Amino acid sequence: MKDKPIAVLGGGVSGLAAALTLLENGQKVVIVEKGDRLGGAARSISIPENRTIPAGYHQVVGTDLELIRFLKKLNLFDRLSWKSTKITSLFNHQEIDLSSPMDILFFRHLSVVGRIRYLLFGARCVLFKNWQSWQGKPVTEMVRKLAGEEVLKKIIQPLVDIKFGISPDLADAAWLGKRLSHREATTKFGYIRNASWTQEMCDAFEIRIRQLGGVIKTGTSVKKINLSSNRTVTSIITDQDEKIPVKAVLSTLQPPILSMILNNGKTPKHWIGQLDKIKYIHIYSLVAGLPFV
After folding, report:
1. C-alpha 119, offset from chain centre
2. What does the buried/exposed string (b/e) look like for 130-147 if buried means 16 or more CB atoms within 10 Å of the residue's CB?
């Protein structure tokens, strides 16, 4: 078993980070990525004049300690430049910075009581530390309790819908509260001058993983996961009918795709049933640039 690798399904940033961590802890790893290159949603698109732009909406946020840790590990952190930005929203023809107390005080979209409750809600989010207590509870419950129905319907619900296209009932309160407590909208954002930082990061991941003996298979997908009689993973079968002996599988695939793969093998039905209970939502965002005229 020790000689067998762990199969990491998916070569996006989460798969690359997991693979590197496993390798650094003495495990053998094989990454299987369906696309022709690594990066997943963090990949970049080549444009004229030897330039690249991110395929999705990504930024280095100063409060994202886990991302910062990996950027330092990959020797990219010192290449970052930092810039303060201002994020504003448009409500009923009024532009407003929702992180600015002064803007909130003159925010006509909310009643006077609503403005005060929103300001108190922001202060509570910054001061509150035990966000684990809200784990698994919907955003609607948290906002109703801490800010009231008006703030929920006029501010939080439209913002969650714009960002994810879902109801606040489906968003996790602990996740939102933690982001608000870190005041991400007012932090500085990092970037690498004249380069796509996401591409630089994915390239650095690949180099480090290969240096540590990791195997990377791009343009390859898994169609079956084989189990032994005692229901432990023994191997994976790729779409090229290659059988790769493995001792475990770490999946970063979307739950519906993993469920489909498991259905192709002799997987216990209750495993698949548990997986199918996960409510998975595809979210896409786009960064587009136009030349100045």
Report:
1. 28
2. ebeebeeebbbebbbebb
- 244 by DSSP, 3-state: which? strand
Find the Cα–Cα–Cα–Cα dihedral 56, 57, 61, 65, rounded to 10°.
-40
pTM score: 0.80
Residues 6+ apart with CB under 8 A from 116: none
**d(C-alpha 101, C-alpha 258), whole Å:** 45
Percent of the chain with pLDDT over 70: 94
Instruction: Report in angstroms the alpha-carbon separations of 63 from 115, 149, 168, 183, 188.
Output: 27, 29, 24, 8, 9
Considering Cα of 7, then 9, then 14, then 16, what sign does the dihedral take?
A: positive
Instruction: Give the percent of the chain with pLDDT over 90.
Output: 48
Q: What are phi and psi of 64, to 5 degrees?
A: -85, 85
pLDDT digits (tens, 9 = 90+) for 117-149: 999 999 999 898 888 899 989 999 999 999 999
Q: What is the pLDDT of residues 201-232, one digit of tens each?
A: 999 999 999 999 999 999 999 999 998 888 88
- Whose tokens are 């059988």? That residue is 243
Q: Read off the tokens for 133.
A: 């207590």
β-sheet bridge partners, residue 162: none
Distance CA 143, CA 173 (A): 8
How far apart, in whole angstroms, are the C-alpha atoms of residue 141 and residue 148? 10
